[in-house]
TrEMBL record:
PROSITE patterns: ZN2_CY6_FUNGAL_1 (PS00463), ZN2_CY6_FUNGAL_2 (PS50048). It comes from Cylindrodendrum hubeiense. It holds the Pfam family Fungal_trans_2. Keywords: Nucleus. SUPFAM superfamilies: Zn2/Cys6 DNA-binding domain. This is Zn(2)-C6 fungal-type domain-containing protein. GO terms for molecular function: DNA-binding transcription factor activity, RNA polymerase II-specific; zinc ion binding. It is found in: Nucleus. InterPro entries: Fun_TF, Zn2-C6_fun-type_DNA-bd_sf, Zn2Cys6_DnaBD. One of its GO terms (cellular component) is nucleus. Residues 12-42 form the Zn(2)-C6 fungal-type domain. It comes from the Eukaryota.
Amino acid sequence: MGKTRVRVVEGSCWPCKKRRIKCDLTKPICMRCGLVGATCDYNTRLIRWSTRPAVTVPPMYRIISRDEQLAASLAVYEKRALDYFHGRFWPLLTTASEPCTAPILVALEHRVVLLATCVLADAHRWLQDGRNSRSILNVKRLECLAALRVEVDGFCAKGDGPLQTLLFAVLLLYFHDGFLECVEASASTSSHRDGVLAIVDRLGGMTAALDTGQDPLHLLLTEFLSADLGTSILKGRPPSFPPTVWESINKGPVWWGKDSFGRHSLSAVFREISSMAFYLDATSCMREEFSISRIRQFEAALQPIYAPLAVEDLDSPIIELEDTSERDLEATHAYAMIRAFQHAALIYLYRAICGLAIQHPLVQQHTQSCLDCIFGIKRPSKVINCILLPLCIAGAHAQTPKEQKKVRNMVSIIHDEIRFASIHSLSVALEGIWKVETPNVTWAEMFAELNPEAIIL
């Protein structure tokens, strides 16, 4: 008599489900996956990214080269990596439905940028479906770092060179390590950050770097500025750039959705957050006295904004309200994201600068409002993927098991959508914060255990 077939246990990891064997449900890696070296995956959905090109590719995602010989000279795996970066990874860096052109031409013309692009694409595809070998990824990463050192040595020897090319490569490696590599011992996000700062300084400052006229570089720099600002406030240090850098940043492509009616921008919120971070540093070092009037100014500047009632809303036929245009929907999501960041900034103001306790009514008021903004964004809006910093701040201050469960579910949803390793770091940090029973934990103590190599944007 044959053996009775073992039924799949509810909640099994995906490798055990596919093999139709009993999973012991051990997390993060079950015993069977550990024995065979399989990638243990407990996510609620199994997402596969096809490496085959689509029959019809939208024009915005087509790789167009000024020199066909450049594209023809690429290896098969490099072409596949560029396609993946262009069609899958690049759209994740922005909330816009139609992002600016990816830096494919730069990658085709400069080997070091091509290598950085391939490393980033292959690393994300490994997190997406586990198709790549981890050892091969490490070899490619080392090859890219070696090529980058050659370029840097050449620049130092000559005193001049393609600094913008180096900036592209280092920015891509910064996001690779901060988003995808941060859970590995080899991650060096902080080193790449220092490299970006050095190159930007050599270019004449951030304003000069933003004014290079290259749209993909402008978008990547806005992402870098936002990541630097978020890391600064979580770690309790001033940002690398003054608040004035945010005043003219909307001249080029940015990662956040713009208000299509031109009434508000997230850059104004970032300017206030940056000002608060510098103010906190000044008061901590006794260079400036704490002033309640200054706090009132921050409060006034960060009052959550809402879209006003428009005349056309009243004049439009009722039936047209059901057919909301993409422009209106994008504006609605932009407002929701701005409000979430405003509430998160006010939590930072009251907790880090004013020193209020977690349970203080002002702190909890904005915690609840911030979470309501985030949970109210309808899927599949891309805004959800780019709202981790407010989710981190408000989620850390969530007090009830019900709120914490909703935050935990939202983190899981975002991870299923974008598969960044940094989200795992965020999840671990939040779980650690929720376990702390001391009610008077300070802002600095709250985020002290957050992975220093992870980018929370």
